[in-house]
């Protein structure tokens, strides 16, 4: 019999544990056991993600793509949702559009200018089921999605359910959609075992928390839990490779419905658009801008786009480490200045339309 590769062994272990979890009913008596299994599973999946792709296994060019502009938005959706059409409508790009699936084979970048910000938008191949097993280009698509500042989850009005399916596929791969990291603080120690502290009553018992921590390689630590956490959230805290990415859901081809369509559908929390006719696109652009949470500040008179709420010290760092080293005060004008030209320390936070002169 041919010898199994390490990767194949890991896949077999994952399958076996997944089956055991499926076959074990979840109740108080099995909670700890399931906790351990889930933790073991998360750890095995971590090792999978760290296994480099085989040379020439279809990465091709396009995947080593550099982030450019002030923020990067990635379009994720099933084949033929209209991702390429949308990219072309929003940016200067010319991504190939076709009435059949799988036209886009590598990442196509485009740049959208909005409020003086340059927002990079990436069109990636359609995400299909089984992506997590590295089928199709799924694995590369997932790695591009991980690096996004914002995801636009896109399907069309005939397939609204695809959004939930794609969200689930991303979640299975450690990409947390529109969530904040659980408030759990881990302070690793050299000895003394595990000490669990929580000022909120938890549904998980302390022993389960300890078993999960130990299974994921944390043996000595003080763990402070500051919110109610589920088993999955607890595992997220210990797992490597978890990313938290904001997202907007979009349904395209709304022009194919019989009536003049509503752009904001609050019921299922989507923005309905027609990439082809352009309806809904200005609302989508604004939603992208708002969700990215960027502000425009002025360095003397030159505009610069930065993340809302960062400090002037962070801005100096963005300009360059040398610059940050040689400046420690600034003068500010505009909405948050007590008076025009107020001198402040670099711990001052930026705000929309603030004018800054580093001293
Ligand atoms: N009716 C209509 N068709 C669209 C719209 N956007 C894209 N399409 C069509 O849908 C098909 C797939 O589009 P494409 O951009 O290649 O999808 P992708 O696979 O997600 O990149 C093409 O035939 C497009 O012309 C739209 O807003 N309305
Ligand atoms: Mg395409």
What's the arrangement of secondary structure elements?
Elements: H1 6-23, H2 31-50, E1 71-76, H3 83-90, E2 108-114, E3 117-123, H4 138-146, E4 150-156, H5 161-172, E5 175-177, E6 184-188, E7 194-198, H6 206-215, E8 221-225, H7 231-238, E9 243-245, E10 247-252, E11 264-265, E12 270-272, H8 281-292, E13 294-299, E14 302-307, H9 312-319, H10 321-326, E15 329-333, E16 342-345, E17 355-358
Summary?
This protein has ten helices and 17 strands. By secondary structure, it is an alpha/beta fold. The strands form four sheets. A seven-stranded mixed sheet has the order 2-3-1-4-10-12-11, with helices on both faces. A five-stranded mixed sheet has the order 14-13-17-15-16.
Write a structural description.
The protein has helices spanning 6-23, 31-50, 83-90, 138-146, 161-172, 206-215, 231-238, 281-292, 312-319, 321-326; strands at 71-76, 108-114, 117-123, 150-156, 175-177, 184-188, 194-198, 221-225, 243-245, 247-252, 264-265, 270-272, 294-299, 302-307, 329-333, 342-345, 355-358. The chain has ten helices and 17 strands. With 359 residues, the protein is an alpha/beta fold. The chain folds into three domains: 6-50 and 182-238, no CATH class; 71-179 and 243-292, Rossmann fold (3-Layer(aba) Sandwich); 294-358, Roll (Ubiquitin-like (UB roll)), CATH 3.10.20.30. Helix content is 31%, strand content 23%. β15 and β16 (342-345) form a beta hairpin. The strands form four sheets. Strands 2-3-1-4-10-12-11 form a seven-stranded mixed β-sheet, with helices on both faces. A five-stranded mixed β-sheet has the order 14-13-17-15-16. Strands 6-8-7 form a three-stranded mixed β-sheet, covered by helices on one side. The termini are far apart. It binds guanosine-5'-diphosphate (GDP) and magnesium ion.
